[in-house]
Design goal:
Hypothetical Protein, Haloacid Dehalogenase-like Hydrolase, Chain: A, domain 2; 9 helices; phosphatase activity; magnesium ion binding; HAD_sf; eight-stranded mixed sheet; Rossmann fold; six-stranded mixed sheet; alpha/beta
Length: 257
């Protein structure tokens, strides 16, 4: 590969505050591909949650579930599901404390409860409906990520109880649950290792807590202007807000456009 490889987060990066792709971002990605660069997505979402985005932007390589499932041009490169025993323990613990769980595989997501207001409020920010109810969905399937719906005050008890899992807060009522050490950085590392791409030829754009490892890992990293300070500090560059043509500005800032 002679060009560079650019990874984009989705929410707050490719998608603006109204969950739309800015026109300037579409133009920028089209131009990157015309120049011979490889464009990929790096997201906490599952593949079924951003199929339309991939189709709209013509992107077929991605790091999903915060690095637990990786594809390059339709070929799976990495699968790292949560251990079945840990899923069972997490389910029992969350049920005991009245916290619902959503289980996520490659096809869809299912909820441990029929309806919960915390699921509704947090999932709705992704423009996704409340998942269907199937408390047994985690059995016999590769579950790459869970969502535990709990308050910030309840978070420490999960971290203390499950030292073999990582918890990443993404909403006041919800945390991503991943295998220990899982991150977008690990997913990117697996992809570029198999493709033989040097770290200095990697660019990454992100805006939130689950992007920190990726921004620290990439040879060239750009935090969105709408990112919290802790995320901006992890990046080499800071661009404008996603709603102010932040992607286009960032690509010009680092000399790719």
């Amino acid at each position: 590969m002679t060009g560079k490889m650019i990874f984009f987060d989705i929410d707050g990066t490719l998608l603006d505050h109204d969950k739309k792709i800015p026109t300037s971002t579409k133009q920028a990605i089209c131009e990157l591909k015309r120049l011979g660069h490889e464009v990929a997505i790096a997201t906490g979402r599952g593949p079924f949650m951003f199929k339309e985005i991939r189709e709209e932007l013509g992107i077929d390589s991605f790091v999903s579930y915060n690095g637990q499932y990786v594809e390059f041009r339709g070929e799976p490169l990495l699968k790292n599901p949560i251990q079945a025993e840990l899923l069972q323990q997490l389910t029992e613990y969350a049920d005991k404390h009245g916290n619902p769980i959503v289980y996520m595989d490659l096809e869809t997501m299912r909820s441990s409860t029929e309806y919960h207001v915390h699921i509704e409020e947090s999932i709705a920010t992704l423009k996704v409906p409340h998942p269907a109810h199937d408390p047994e969905y985690f059995r016999g399937r590769d579950i790459f990520q869970c969502l535990v719906f709990c308050t910030i005050g309840e978070e420490p008890m999960y971290r203390e109880r499950f030292s073999s899992l990582d918890f990443i807060r993404w909403h006041q009522f919800s945390m991503d649950v991943l295998p220990l050490g899982g991150s977008k950085a690990k997913g990117i590392e697996a992809m570029i290792g198999k493709l033989g791409i040097a770290k200095e030829d990697i660019y990454a754009f992100g805006d939130y807590l689950n992007d920190i490892e990726m921004l620290q890992f990439a040879g060239n990293s750009i935090a969105m202007g709408n990112a919290p300070d802790i995320v901006k500090k992890a990046a080499k560059h800071v661009t404008k807000d996603v709603g102010e043509d932040g992607i286009m500005h960032g690509l010009r800032l680092v000399g790719l456009l």
